[in-house]
C-alpha cells in the first residue's frame, strides 16, 4: 500500500488543470456557491456519519448562506471556518472524516479566497476515495477515483457557470 495522502490530485494533472481553467472564468460568488453546494451534497455526509454530534461543518455551510444574505459579517464567517479547521485537526486519526472536514472548510472559505476551491477539490477527492474504498488501496486506485470525482466537480461547475462572466475572479494559483 502506498502512503496515504491528505489530498488527492496534483496541480499539473490534466483533470485539475481543466477544472482550474473553468474556475478562472467565474466570479467569486459563483465559485463559492458551487463549492459550498458541492461540499454540502458530497462531503458533509461523510464527516457526519463519522461524527454525527459534531455540527461545526453544518454550521459553516449555514453560515456561508447567512453571510451571503448579509446576516453575519466576514469576520464571523472566518471564525466559523476556523472551527471547521479545528474539527479537521481533531479528526487526525480518521483520514476519511478529516479529508471531508477540510473539503467543507475550503469550500466555505472560497468566498474570501477563491483558490480554496482547488483545496476543496483535492481534499474532497480524498474524502470520496477513502470513504468509497477504504484506506488500504493502491495509489492508482485512489488517483482514478480522484480523477472521476474531479470530473464530477467540473461538470457541476459547468451546470452553474455564467457564460461570458463579466467579473471573473482574479486568481493566482501559486502552484
Characterization of the model:
- The protein has 175 residues and is mostly helical.
- It is built from eight helices and no strands.
- The two termini are 27 Å apart.
In short:
By secondary structure, the chain is mainly alpha-helical. It has eight helices and no strands.
Strand content: under 5%
| Major sheet size, sense and barrel closure | none
How confident overall, as mean pLDDT?
Answer: 96
**Outline:** globular
What is the distance, rounded to the nearest whole angstrom, between the alpha carbons of the first and last residues? 27 Å
Q: Strand tally, please? A: 0
Give the helices and strands, then pairings.
Blueprint: H1 14-23, H2 28-42, H3 44-50, H4 56-68, H5 74-90, H6 95-109, H7 116-133, H8 139-160
Identify the notable features of this structure and list them briefly.
single chain; 175 residues; mainly alpha; 67% helix; 0% strand
Amino acid at each position: 500500500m502506498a502512503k496515504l495522502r491528505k489530498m488527492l490530485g496534483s496541480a499539473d494533472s490534466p483533470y485539475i488543470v481543466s477544472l482550474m481553467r473553468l474556475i478562472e472564468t467565474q466570479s467569486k460568488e459563483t465559485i463559492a456557491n458551487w463549492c459550498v453546494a458541492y461540499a454540502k451534497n458530497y462531503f458533509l455526509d461523510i464527516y457526519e456519519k463519522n461524527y454525527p454530534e459534531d455540527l461545526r461543518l453544518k454550521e459553516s455551510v449555514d453560515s456561508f448562506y447567512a453571510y451571503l444574505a448579509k446576516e453575519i459579517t466576514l469576520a464571523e464567517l472566518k471564525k466559523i471556518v476556523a472551527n471547521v479547521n479545528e474539527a479537521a485537526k481533531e479528526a487526525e486519526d480518521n483520514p476519511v472524516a478529516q479529508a471531508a472536514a477540510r473539503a467543507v472548510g475550503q469550500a466555505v472559505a472560497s468566498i474570501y479566497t477563491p483558490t480554496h476551491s482547488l483545496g476543496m477539490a483535492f481534499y474532497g477527492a480524498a474524502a470520496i476515495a477513502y470513504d468509497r474504498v477504504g484506506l488500504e488501496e493502491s495509489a492508482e486506485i485512489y488517483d482514478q477515483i480522484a480523477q472521476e470525482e474531479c470530473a464530477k466537480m467540473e461538470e457541476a461547475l459547468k451546470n452553474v457557470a455564467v457564460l461570458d462572466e463579466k467579473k471573473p475572479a482574479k486568481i493566482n494559483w501559486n502552484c
